[in-house]
């Protein structure tokens, strides 16, 4: 009953949109442009072997490497900026400025630099996911109130104690908020990189189907990419709930 109350409205809306899509696509009868959801599902089943055994693992590997690097360097830079004002003034404007550059315009350059290897796609993924992780973690580290810090100092706490016992727990929820944004963006980053230049992957497969005017073939990997994004978001949300059991949520 709780699950129905929580997801009933969104499930009903999803079903309604699928019905509208199915009906509209059948009325237009232009499958090479707008296939029906049924056609897409049948295409996924028809191409299940190359999609799930060849292209999905290639895309998933890009996502995992890109996210891992973003977490490693993003959290590290956020911590560095929080403890050093010079570093903050140096890097923070650059981090903000990096988001004004259209990543899709840089993707071909990375292909020229790294070729059709996995690293051209990983760099695109890192550039997209680095920002939310870094900024959210940095904001979380700065969100600690001065009163709490003063209280710990009066109790004899060192800077190390304040960082690990106050700032790190306080910034955990900020970090997970940034990570939930990053995991969904990582799917987009991997797909963009594969679309520009790759030899395998769901983005590459979608582009290949487009050259064959196969509408259902174009949509099939897109649906799988969406499912991957939802799957990763659910994993991060579950990890957040288990890690932050002390936090009271509605």
Task: State the CATH superfamily name of the largest domain.
Answer: MetI-like
**Percent in strands:** under 5%
Structural class: mainly alpha
C-alpha-based Rg, rounded: 22 Å
Cα(first) to Cα(last) distance is 17 Å
Give the helices and strands as they follow along the chain: HHHHHHHHHH
Counted by DSSP, the helix tally is 10
Largest β-sheet summary:
none
Family: Belongs to the binding-protein-dependent transport system permease family.
Domain ABC transmembrane type-1: 56-236
Protein name: ABC transporter permease
Organism: Metabacillus endolithicus
What does this structure look like?
With 250 residues, the chain is an all-alpha fold. It has two domains: 30 residues; 213 residues, MetI-like (MetI-like fold). The protein contains ten helices and no strands. α3 runs antiparallel to α4 and α8 runs parallel beside α9. Keywords: Cell membrane, Membrane, Transmembrane, Transmembrane helix, Transport.
Q: Top keywords for this entry?
A:
250 residues; mainly alpha; MetI-like fold; single chain; 10 helices
Briefly say what this structure is.
Keywords: Cell membrane, Membrane, Transmembrane, Transmembrane helix, Transport. By secondary structure, this protein is mostly helical. It is 84% helix and 0% strand.
Write the topology of this structure.
Blueprint: H1 2-28, H2 37-46, H3 48-83, H4 85-98, H5 103-114, H6 118-142, H7 146-154, H8 159-196, H9 202-211, H10 215-243
Helix pairs in contact: 2-10, 3-4, 3-6, 3-8, 3-9, 5-6, 6-8, 8-9, 8-10, 9-10
Subcellular location: Cell membrane
Family: Belongs to the binding-protein-dependent transport system permease family.
Keywords: Cell membrane, Membrane, Transmembrane, Transmembrane helix, Transport
